[in-house]
């Protein structure tokens, strides 16, 4: 999958249960529209949505399952349960929260990576990180790529944005990592997409600016 998305745009087609577009069918049509527009891949949440998307497009999919667990802030592919669900979809890549926060049930990131490698060696793994230290650990654990997804969404980074300091965090990730770095999180405009690629990103994931109309409307009104 990494070769297929190199230098391209991955469109995140997600709608949570409390959002107006929550529906596997609607997400599949979003993905089909993204494919028609020239997207290189799709990032999608939940087994149901991914299966619907795979029936509607030929694009490779980064799969996640978002699920809240009491006592843990980790909710992107947090446990073995989510991995098992994703492995039934045939998605080409699975993204996991790779922050250093405690996982539900005491599971460890290292154990989840090892489990996935045993169960399905052909599936690539993306590490959603918020810091350079987490990226280094993800590389040590054998992830295929890292993504800046959670920068700004952890207690240590809250209030920060990927575009701060001309994408300074992204540039530091690219300089440090020996594996591909994907830009994701608050990429709001075509110019930001271009700047992420210029900063050395292997690919760029854009979600809210394309597929979450309620957020798009809010940005217009705030302006």
From TrEMBL:
Which EC number applies?
5.1.3.9
Supply the Gene3D superfamilies for this chain. Answer: Aldolase class I (3.20.20.70)
Give the EC class as a word.
isomerase
Q: Which GO terms describe its molecular function?
A: N-acylglucosamine-6-phosphate 2-epimerase activity
Q: Name one GO biological process term.
A: N-acetylmannosamine catabolic process
Q: Which PANTHER family match?
A: N-ACETYLMANNOSAMINE-6-PHOSPHATE 2-EPIMERASE-RELATED (PTHR36204)
| Function field | Converts N-acetylmannosamine-6-phosphate (ManNAc-6-P) to N-acetylglucosamine-6-phosphate (GlcNAc-6-P).
Family per record: Belongs to the NanE family.
Which named protein is this?
A: Putative N-acetylmannosamine-6-phosphate 2-epimerase
The organism named in the record is Paenibacillus albicereus
């Amino acid at each position: 999958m990494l070769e297929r998305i190199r230098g391209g745009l991955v469109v995140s087609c997600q709608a949570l249960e409390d959002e107006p577009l929550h529906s596997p069918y609607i997400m599949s049509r979003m993905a089909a529209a993204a494919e028609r527009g020239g997207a290189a891949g799709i990032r999608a949440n939940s087994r149901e949505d991914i299966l619907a998307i795979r029936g509607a497009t030929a694009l490779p999919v980064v799969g996640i399952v978002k699920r809240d667990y009491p006592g843990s802030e980790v909710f992107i592919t947090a446990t073995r349960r989510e991995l098992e669900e994703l492995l039934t979809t045939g998605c080409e890549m699975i993204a996991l929260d790779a922050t250093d926060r405690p996982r539900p049930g005491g599971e460890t990131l290292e154990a989840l990576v090892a489990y996935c490698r045993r169960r399905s060696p052909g599936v690539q793994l993306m590490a959603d990180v918020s810091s350079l230290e987490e990226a280094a650990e993800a590389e040590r654990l054998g992830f295929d790529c890292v993504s800046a997804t959670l920068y700004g969404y952890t207690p240590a980074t809250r209030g920060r944005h990927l575009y701060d300091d001309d994408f300074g965090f992204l540039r530091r990730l690219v300089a440090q990592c020996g594996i591909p770095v994907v830009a994701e999180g608050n990429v709001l405009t075509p110019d930001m997409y271009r700047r992420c690629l210029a900063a050395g990103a292997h690919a760029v994931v854009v979600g809210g600016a394309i597929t979450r109309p309620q957020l798009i409307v809010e940005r217009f009104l705030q302006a």
